[in-house]
Amino acid sequence: MARILVIDDEPTILKVMTMLLKTRQHDVATTDGGEPGKALLLGQEFDLLLTDIRMAGINGLEFLKMAHEKWPLMPVVMMTGYATLDSVQQAIKLGAFDYIKKPLRADELLDLVDRALEYGKGQKAQSTGVQPMDVRCYLGGIVAESQAMKMVCELAKRVAPTPTIILVRGEKGVGKGLVARTLHDLSRRQDKAFVSVDCAGIQEPELVKMLFGAGQSGQEAAFIQADGGTIFLERIESAGPNAQRMLLAALTAKAIVQMQNGIPHDVPMDVRVLASAEMEIKDLVEAGLFLEELHDRLRLIPIGVPPLRERREDILPLVHYLVKQQAGASGQAAPVMDSDVAERFQAHAWPGNVAEMQDVIRHALAQVQGGRITKGALPQTLLSAGAGSAAPAAKKPEERYKTLRTFLHSMGKTEMKTAK
Fold first, then answer.
1. Contact at 8 Å (CB) between 166 and 212?
2. Predicted local distance difference test score (pLDDT) of residue 413
3. What is the dihedral sign for C-alpha 344, 350, 353, 356?
4. pTM score, whole prediction
5. Residues 338/372, Cβ–Cβ less than 8 Å
6. Beta bridge partners of 52
7. d(Cα 41, Cα 49) in Å, to the nearest integer?
8. Along the chain (420 residues), what's the average pLDDT of each consecutive run of 10 residues?
9. How far apart are the first and last CA of the chain?
10. CA atoms within 13 A on the CB side of 271
């Protein structure tokens, strides 16, 4: 619903337009012009002005000029039964959004009103920027506006209290670690240790030492550190064959083997095991690169975290959440974001998902000037590439003068008059 002011010296026109605009639930104010029209225009803020051009006393072009001086972001649509080249050119010069000829057609009028209001929204957004928003997490620290992420959260809530092994699947940077941490925080082990071990980027002997310990005591073993709590095995598909066999043995026996005086001893462990994977482990099983028995244990309860490109409703809420989080961590107030910056965030493909977004926001916050994130603060990746459609506000300025351009093209240098 929008507030619309209609100025016309014909009572029938005012009545008909009021009826039409109210079918779209708009709040309509009308006046026959003159000083009452001037007082109404200058005294109240409207989302759109529709004014006749030719009227006694104050004409439509004067109302247009007053509107743009007082309310520069409000679109103005001119109505006329005397469409002349001179009047149209004057309207363009004074900043009219568009014009419509009389007699009015309901479909054309309503379509033009929709376009004008959308354009006005875009103008206001460009002027004021996108203000920081308070975003409430759906679960733990997880932002979930999309149905896909809400389903992930609901599944996490159901399985978190169980002792079952859970495998969190998803592309790089989607937030698998956050889901794992949330599972721990919602479990009965929330007051105990949460130990994370990344199985990628480390030689297998070091990984085995990290997981199961070395020497006589094995106290440095991650499984010992996590006793009573949770161990999170990140990118478990990267574990080598020896590490896989030892993991399978530990999960089967619920114990790890430690050497005491040169003799191996089973040390019972009370640990909840969570794991994550970026690849489909079943493909590795088929290729002979991953133990099928270990895979069977890991896949009892899989949780798939979709990439950002498949849950675009989460993008801007995540941006606002991360901007506020990172700005607060460095003692800054959350800055305003230019609307074209928000459009870039929304349109970007985010191949690196949330992790990439965090880096982009860190980059942007380091270059904030005047409490505002502008396009100049964005890395080149967001300026040169994107995916999806830009927000409507970015396109609407192209709609301006649509009818005026058509009119001028068809008219050429010949003045045309139509009966009022």
1. no
2. 38
3. negative
4. 0.63
5. yes
6. 79
7. 9
8. 94 94 95 92 95 90 91 89 72 84 90 90 69 84 94 96 96 97 97 97 91 66 94 97 96 85 81 96 95 94 96 94 94 88 92 96 90 90 58 40 49 38
9. 30
10. 31
pLDDT at 123: 72
- CA-CA distance, 78 to 136, in Å (whole number)? 44
Predicted local distance difference test score (pLDDT) of residue 355: 96
- For residue 139, the cross-strand partners are 142
Neighbouring CB atoms inside 10 A of 177's CB total 17
C-alpha distances (whole Å) from 200 to each of 233, 238, 240, 288 are 10, 5, 10, 18
| Sign of the dihedral defined by the CA atoms of residues 217, 220, 225, 230, in that order | negative
SS (H, E, C) the chain: CCEEEEECCCHHHHHHHHHHHHCCCCEEEEECCHHHHHHHHHHCCCCEEEEECCCCCCCHHHHHHHHHHHCCCCCEEEEECCCCHHHHHHHHHHCCCEEEECCCCHHHHHHHHHHHHHHHHHHHHHHHCECCCCCCCCECCECCCCHHHHHHHHHHHHHCCCCCCEEEECCCCCCHHHHHHHHHHCCCCCCCCEEEEECCCCCHHHHHHHHHCCCCCCCCCHHHHCCCCEEEEECHHHCCHHHHHHHHHHHHHCEEEEEECCEEEEEECCCEEEEEECCCHHHHHHCCCCCHHHHHHHCCEEEECCCHHHCHHHHHHHHHHHHHHHHHHCCCCCCEECHHHHHHHHHCCCCCHHHHHHHHHHHHHCCCECCEECHHHCCHHHHHCCCCCCCHHHHHHHHCCHHHHHHHHHHCCCCCCCCC
pLDDT score at 82: 72
pLDDT of residue 396: 40
Q: Residue 32: count other Cβ atoms within 10 Å of its Cβ.
A: 18
CA distance linking residue 272 with residue 194, whole number of Å: 9
Cβ–Cβ < 8 Å for 5, 40 = yes
Residues in the chain: 420
